[in-house]
Amino acid sequence: xxxxxxxxxxxxxxxxxxxxxxxxxxxxxxxxxxxxxxxxxxxxxxxxxxxxxxxxxxxxxxxxxxxxxxxxxxxxxxxxxxxxxxxxxxxxxxxxxxxxxxxxxxxxxxxxxxxxxxxxxxxxxxxxxxxxxxxxxxxxxxxxxxxxxx
Length: 150
Fold this sequence. Notes:
Number of strands: 5
CATH superfamily of the largest domain: Beta-grasp domain
Helix content: 25-40%
Shape: globular
CATH architecture of the largest domain: Roll
Radius of gyration: 15 Å
Distance between the termini: 46 Å
CATH topology of the largest domain: Ubiquitin-like (UB roll)
Number of helices: 5
Strand order of the largest sheet: 2-1-5-3-4
Largest sheet: 5 strands, mixed
Order of helices and strands: EEHEEEHHHH
Protein backbone atom coordinates (compact mmCIF):
# COMPACT_ATOMS: atom_id res chain seq x y z
CA UNK A 1 0.00 0.00 0.00
CA UNK A 2 1.10 3.55 -0.68
CA UNK A 3 -0.08 6.75 0.93
CA UNK A 4 -1.86 9.04 -1.49
CA UNK A 5 -2.48 12.70 -0.71
CA UNK A 6 -5.29 14.39 -2.64
CA UNK A 7 -7.30 17.54 -2.47
CA UNK A 8 -10.77 16.49 -3.61
CA UNK A 9 -13.50 19.09 -4.03
CA UNK A 10 -11.52 21.42 -1.78
CA UNK A 11 -10.89 18.90 1.03
CA UNK A 12 -7.53 17.35 1.85
CA UNK A 13 -7.48 13.53 1.98
CA UNK A 14 -4.89 10.87 2.77
CA UNK A 15 -5.64 7.41 1.47
CA UNK A 16 -3.71 4.15 1.62
CA UNK A 17 -4.07 2.84 -1.91
CA UNK A 18 -2.78 -0.18 -3.76
CA UNK A 19 -0.05 0.99 -6.15
CA UNK A 20 -2.07 -0.23 -9.15
CA UNK A 21 -5.43 1.21 -8.00
CA UNK A 22 -7.32 3.42 -10.41
CA UNK A 23 -8.26 6.91 -9.29
CA UNK A 24 -11.89 6.01 -10.05
CA UNK A 25 -11.79 3.25 -7.44
CA UNK A 26 -10.11 5.46 -4.82
CA UNK A 27 -12.78 8.13 -5.32
CA UNK A 28 -15.69 5.67 -5.15
CA UNK A 29 -14.46 3.04 -2.68
CA UNK A 30 -12.14 4.91 -0.35
CA UNK A 31 -13.59 8.43 -0.39
CA UNK A 32 -17.21 7.31 -0.98
CA UNK A 33 -17.72 9.85 -3.79
CA UNK A 34 -20.01 7.69 -5.87
CA UNK A 35 -21.17 10.39 -8.26
CA UNK A 36 -18.33 9.48 -10.62
CA UNK A 37 -19.52 6.41 -12.54
CA UNK A 38 -17.75 3.56 -14.26
CA UNK A 39 -19.24 2.94 -17.65
CA UNK A 40 -16.67 1.05 -19.69
CA UNK A 41 -13.45 0.93 -17.66
CA UNK A 42 -11.53 1.60 -20.88
CA UNK A 43 -11.63 5.40 -21.18
CA UNK A 44 -14.10 5.31 -24.05
CA UNK A 45 -17.43 6.40 -22.55
CA UNK A 46 -16.58 9.46 -20.40
CA UNK A 47 -18.84 8.47 -17.49
CA UNK A 48 -15.93 8.74 -15.05
CA UNK A 49 -14.75 12.18 -16.19
CA UNK A 50 -13.30 14.40 -13.47
CA UNK A 51 -10.89 17.33 -13.34
CA UNK A 52 -7.31 16.81 -12.23
CA UNK A 53 -5.47 20.06 -11.64
CA UNK A 54 -8.10 21.77 -13.76
CA UNK A 55 -7.86 19.39 -16.72
CA UNK A 56 -10.58 16.99 -17.82
CA UNK A 57 -9.55 13.34 -17.39
CA UNK A 58 -11.19 9.92 -17.39
CA UNK A 59 -10.51 8.55 -13.92
CA UNK A 60 -10.73 4.90 -14.98
CA UNK A 61 -7.41 5.32 -16.82
CA UNK A 62 -5.56 7.34 -14.18
CA UNK A 63 -3.39 5.37 -11.78
CA UNK A 64 -4.26 6.69 -8.32
CA UNK A 65 -0.61 7.33 -7.48
CA UNK A 66 -0.36 9.60 -10.50
CA UNK A 67 -2.82 11.90 -8.75
CA UNK A 68 -0.74 12.15 -5.57
CA UNK A 69 -0.72 15.82 -4.54
CA UNK A 70 -3.27 16.75 -7.20
CA UNK A 71 -6.34 18.94 -6.95
CA UNK A 72 -9.27 16.75 -8.02
CA UNK A 73 -12.81 17.88 -8.71
CA UNK A 74 -15.67 15.44 -9.08
CA UNK A 75 -19.32 15.97 -9.96
CA UNK A 76 -20.02 16.36 -6.23
CA UNK A 77 -17.76 19.40 -6.31
CA UNK A 78 -19.89 21.20 -8.89
CA UNK A 79 -22.66 21.97 -6.43
CA UNK A 80 -21.69 24.75 -4.04
CA UNK A 81 -24.56 25.56 -1.71
CA UNK A 82 -27.14 24.34 -4.21
CA UNK A 83 -27.22 22.83 -7.65
CA UNK A 84 -24.73 24.10 -10.19
CA UNK A 85 -26.56 25.90 -13.05
CA UNK A 86 -25.64 22.99 -15.37
CA UNK A 87 -27.13 20.46 -12.98
CA UNK A 88 -30.36 22.47 -12.81
CA UNK A 89 -30.41 22.83 -16.59
CA UNK A 90 -29.99 19.07 -17.03
CA UNK A 91 -33.04 18.61 -14.80
CA UNK A 92 -35.04 21.28 -16.60
CA UNK A 93 -34.27 20.08 -20.13
CA UNK A 94 -34.23 16.29 -19.83
CA UNK A 95 -30.46 15.99 -19.98
CA UNK A 96 -30.42 12.99 -17.65
CA UNK A 97 -32.26 9.72 -17.71
CA UNK A 98 -30.52 6.64 -16.27
CA UNK A 99 -27.73 8.79 -14.81
CA UNK A 100 -24.68 6.74 -15.77
CA UNK A 101 -23.30 9.29 -18.26
CA UNK A 102 -24.59 12.37 -16.45
CA UNK A 103 -21.60 13.03 -14.14
CA UNK A 104 -19.15 12.84 -17.02
CA UNK A 105 -21.35 14.99 -19.24
CA UNK A 106 -21.61 17.58 -16.48
CA UNK A 107 -17.86 17.65 -15.88
CA UNK A 108 -17.07 17.95 -19.60
CA UNK A 109 -19.72 20.65 -20.08
CA UNK A 110 -18.54 22.59 -17.03
CA UNK A 111 -14.96 22.52 -18.36
CA UNK A 112 -16.20 23.78 -21.74
CA UNK A 113 -18.15 26.63 -20.17
CA UNK A 114 -15.20 27.54 -17.96
CA UNK A 115 -12.94 27.91 -20.98
CA UNK A 116 -15.56 29.13 -23.49
CA UNK A 117 -18.50 30.82 -21.74
CA UNK A 118 -20.46 31.24 -25.00
CA UNK A 119 -19.77 28.10 -27.04
CA UNK A 120 -21.50 27.47 -30.34
CA UNK A 121 -23.68 24.39 -30.79
CA UNK A 122 -20.83 22.78 -32.70
CA UNK A 123 -18.40 23.48 -29.87
CA UNK A 124 -20.83 21.96 -27.36
CA UNK A 125 -21.16 18.83 -29.47
CA UNK A 126 -17.40 18.58 -29.90
CA UNK A 127 -16.71 19.07 -26.17
CA UNK A 128 -19.16 16.29 -25.29
CA UNK A 129 -18.06 13.93 -28.08
CA UNK A 130 -16.02 11.84 -25.63
CA UNK A 131 -19.12 11.03 -23.57
CA UNK A 132 -21.49 8.28 -24.61
CA UNK A 133 -25.17 8.20 -23.67
CA UNK A 134 -27.52 5.32 -24.34
CA UNK A 135 -30.74 6.94 -23.12
CA UNK A 136 -31.24 10.58 -23.99
CA UNK A 137 -30.53 10.86 -27.69
CA UNK A 138 -28.24 13.78 -26.73
CA UNK A 139 -30.61 16.58 -27.69
CA UNK A 140 -31.70 17.26 -24.10
CA UNK A 141 -28.04 17.31 -23.06
CA UNK A 142 -27.04 19.73 -25.82
CA UNK A 143 -30.02 21.96 -25.02
CA UNK A 144 -29.22 21.92 -21.29
CA UNK A 145 -25.65 23.07 -21.93
CA UNK A 146 -26.78 25.70 -24.45
CA UNK A 147 -29.22 27.21 -21.93
CA UNK A 148 -26.37 27.83 -19.45
CA UNK A 149 -23.96 29.52 -21.87
CA UNK A 150 -23.59 33.28 -21.56
